[in-house]
Amino acid sequence: MSEPQLRASTKGDEPAVRRLLAEVLPGNPKADERIMRWQYHDNPYGDAMGWVWEDGGRIVGCYTAVPVPFLVGGEPTRGVVSVDAATADGYRGRGLFSAIIEESERVLRERGFSCAYFFPAALSMLPHRAHALGWPFRTYVLPLNTEWFAERLPVPPGAGRTLGSAMFRRPSGDADDVGATVPDDVGTLWEQLRPRLEFGIVKDETWWRWRYGEHPLRPYRFVTIREQGRLTALGAAVDRNALGGRVVYVLELLAVTRADARRAVGALVSSASDDVDAVAMLALPGTPQARAARGAGLRPVPRRLEANPVWLAVYDIRGEQAERLSGPWAATWGDMDHL
Predict the structure, then answer these.
(1) Within a domain: residue 213?
(2) What does the alpha-carbon distance between residue 210 and residue 238 come to, in Å, rounded to a whole number?
């Protein structure tokens, strides 16, 4: 085995990067050229920045940083979402990932970026050179199928059904509020909610149209709630086979009040197919998203049922901002790369 060389990636490397991602991370959506192009190059905040390890003409390691705008302590700052970190079999354990992170931090720091989101895979660890803070997400659920709920609990089925009926009340909502497009006035809703979200991605109209509306596969449904014509809640959801059943995942939920959040989830319930087992949402405890989830009638899954919770890591590109970046970060499942 020769000594691999680290360098910045180019567009010409992308077919080889897609092959590596398909090999190391089966199911990674960036194996689809359309999705890679959308995220890397159709990004309104600028082209993605990437690095690769090359050995004898073969790409054996990769890492990419996608620029997005952040709020830190309520102030705008330049950040990135870290995606597509992979090392080929036979090259792990040689410090390649730590070295690629070190080089990326150097370049991103020189270009004026402040911090990065990273979503470590289950049971994985960040490289030791990343100046990272981390928090585990909680999964919030609203069961629609009492049999599914009973199976998740270590109690007899009859008791599980009774408990589910006592713990959860289905919210009401109009299925006509669910559609396939991002509303034109999402920016006004964001401006109203922005003071509540001191730490996180700036989710204004530009973000929503790129992240959800322009996704090449268009997999999302959007729920809109209005009060006297004014947008008071907006959610993005997708259907997934997960949690041992068929789930409507709420990837994003902006809501002025708890009642607005409840109406939004009620509309998703009303529009759901008969085979859906639950509505679910991922959020960090103590954040506006977690409060919206609870207000909508979702409850946190018991910790014993989340043996390997998803984590948000926020790492400090400058290496000197631990207190400034301590949060609370208002991250959601929609911030992640794999959906």
Answers:
(1) no
(2) 16
